[in-house]
Structures are given as structure tokens and as C-alpha cells.
Amino acid sequence: MGYVTLTKDNFDQEVLKADKPVLVDFWASWCGPCMALAPTIDEIAQEQSEIKVGKVNVDDEGELARQFRVMSIPTLMVFKNGELVRREVGGKSKEEILEMAGATETAQA
Q1: What does the pLDDT look like over 62-80, one tens digit per residue?
Q2: What digits encode the pLDDT tens for the residues 17-76?
Q3: Which of 26, 62, 71, 88 is the most exposed, having the fewest neighbouring CB atoms within 10 Å of its CB?
Q4: In the chain, beta strands by DSSP E
Q5: Domain-by-domain residue ranges, the chain?
Q6: Could you give the CA distance from residue 28 to residue 39 in angstroms, rounded to a whole number?
């Protein structure tokens, strides 16, 4: 499926009105830990159908970063039914991210 690039214009529709949990990755291209985490986020986006994955580039979407008080990146947030239910800062393993999002690993994992 892949991830959705989130902006202030589509955030409400893609995240707050989503019909399944949404994992949101706040990142920037100059952030080493963000770049290290990116392949894992991309893999989750491809493999997991029960969650939606979105990415917010904090350089392009400073308004969203401020709205959600993102002070350090990478910051991962999970939204369910329009509500922020989990927030983690820093690099995480695939397993930690899936647990955080409430997703279960598939049989091939």
C-alpha cells in the first residue's frame, strides 16, 4: 500500500477521519535517525493493511509539527478514531513500532 505524505491540507481527512489506526512519522531529510528509521516505516506501510502510515516532513509542514508539539525527531504518533493515543520519540525497532500501533506481525515475519 505504501505511506501517505501528510500536509496541513490533508491531515484531517487522512488521519483524524481515518477508519483504521494511523501511524504518523514526523521526520526531516537532514535527520540521521529519521533516515535510519525510514526503511522500517516504509516496510510497515507496505506490509500492514490494518494500519495506515503517514509521514510529515517537519521542514515542509512546520505548522503540523508545532500543532503536535514535535520537539525532537523522529517522533512517531498513533491516532485511533481521531485521537492521539500514543507518542514515542527516537528510533524504534519494527516490532516496537508494530506494538505501538496495535498491529500484529504477519505470518511471514
Answers
A1: 999 999 999 999 999 999 9
A2: 999 999 999 999 999 999 999 999 999 999 999 999 999 999 999 999 999 999 999 999
A3: 71
A4: 4-5, 22-27, 52-57, 75-80, 83-89
A5: 4-98
A6: 14
b/e for 99-109, b at 16 or more Cβ within 10 A?
A: ebbebeeeeee
Q: Is 31 a catalytic residue?
A: yes
Q: Model's pTM, two decimal places?
A: 0.92
Catalytic residue among 4, 23, 34, 44: 34
Collapse the DSSP code of 79 into the 3-class scheme (helix H, G, I; strand E, B; otherwise coil) and give the result. strand
Q: 4-98: what CATH class?
A: alpha beta
